[in-house]
Amino acid sequence: MNSGSSLRVEALNPPNELPAGRTVLAEELQDDFALVQLDTTFVTLLSEISALEPDHSDGRGWPDAETSRAQKIELFLARLEPVERAIMATQARTIVGLGVKARHAAYVVSEHWDAPIEQIDWDARAVRLLIEAICKAAGVRLPFPSKAGR
Q1: Three state DSSP letters for the chain
Q2: What b/e sequence results for 5-37 when a residue is b if at least 16 CB atoms lie within 10 Å of its CB, and e otherwise?
Q3: pLDDT per position as a tens digit, 37-52
Q4: What is the structure's pLDDT at 95?
Q5: Cα 122 versus chain centre, distance
Q6: What does the alpha-carbon distance between residue 86 and residue 104 come to, in Å, rounded to a whole number?
Q7: Distance CA 128, CA 121 (A)
Q8: Mean pLDDT per 10-residue segment, the chain (150 residues)
Q9: Non-local CB neighbours of 6 within 8 Å, separated by 6+ positions
């Protein structure tokens, strides 16, 4: 798990929103129902963790508030771990399920989106391009959509 990446979460697909321009067959949702449910929980927890990210716009920090925020983040990460393990352990049967697994993989290796693609090593580039292709085919947004275009 990459706990630092959880703080970089931005706008994700709302839990029950179908991907734009894509019709998901009922069989697809049924085959990967467990993964879709896990994804809903995963996205919700990431959004909640993201909401705890400190606002440093005023340049001031409150030590007690920072400690409390860090403790809350740790609690969310503890709740996130079993969801992540279940996503990894559950077999994808359709492109929908594969998209769920790709979104999770992007979260785990989020450092691959820290630099423009031309500036990352070959292995990271291969992983990043594969994850982006799967997410695009599945109609799933990455957990950090503004970075995907770099």
Answers
A1: CCHHHHHHCCCCCCCCCCCCCCCCCHHHHHHCHHHHHHHHHHHHHHHHHHHCCCCCCCCCCCHHHHHHHHHHHHHHHHHHHHHHHHHHHCCCCCHHHHHHHHHHHHHHCHHHHCCCHHHCCHHHHHHHHHHHHHHHHHCCCCCCHHHCCC
A2: bbebbeebbeeeeebeeeebeeebeebbeebbe
A3: 999 999 999 988 888 8
A4: 94
A5: 23
A6: 11
A7: 11
A8: 41 44 60 93 90 60 71 90 97 95 96 95 97 95 66
A9: 46, 49, 50, 73, 76, 77, 80, 107
Amino acid at 15: P
What is the pTM for the complete model shown? Answer: 0.72
